[in-house]
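Give me C-alpha cells for this 128-residue protein.
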Amino acid sequence: MDGRPKILVVDDEELAQDFLHFFLSKKYDVYTAGSVNSFYNILSKVNFDLIIMDISLRDTKDGIQLTKELKQSEKYKNIPIYILTALNTTKERENAQNAGANNFLVKPFEWKALMKLIESSLTTLTYN
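Here you go.
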C-alpha cells in the first residue's frame, strides 16, 4: 500500500457517508459513493484497500449485488468488503455471506469495533 489506505464508503444516506468520512478520514483516505453510478465511476479511478457497503441503496442494484460482482472479479476479489446495514435479519446475513462479504455490521455500530476490524483487515493485506 502506498501512503494512507483508501476506503470506499457506499451508502445512499448522505448523513451516513458524512459520519463515516469524518471519523475514518482521520486515519485513512476516504471516498464516498451515494449511487450505483458514482460507485462504478470512482471504482474505475481509485484502487481501494477496503469497501464499506450498505445493502439498501435504493438504486438499480443493492449492496449485495455489488459485493457479489466485486468478489467475482479478478481485479477486486481480494478487497475486503464490510456490509454495514440496518437490515439485521438472518436472510440478509446469509445473502451477504453468499455474496462474499468479509464482515456484516449492523447500524448503529460500535465505532471502536469497526476501527479494530478495519485495522485487522488492512494489516493482513499489508503483510500478505
